[in-house]
Amino acid sequence: MITPSKSISFKDSIVFKMIYILDEQFDEISVADLHNKTKRKFLGLNEFIYALDVLYVLGVIDVDIELGKIKRC
Length: 73
Prior knowledge:
The chain is α+β, with helices and mostly antiparallel strands. The protein is 42% helix and 15% strand. The radius of gyration is 12 Å and the shape is globular.
């Protein structure tokens, strides 16, 4: 699900679906607003959260949990 494998194609992996979040133009956005803009691209909320997790670990985004905001790094 997160990375491509024999049973998961690259286009179905979280690594590919992170592109949908990166394509959105924002400097700072709420998690709910970003989800509403991209929810058609993900199979569910779990995939969206996984994509945010990977982007955070890679240092592409920063998350302010108290405000519920995502910022580009």
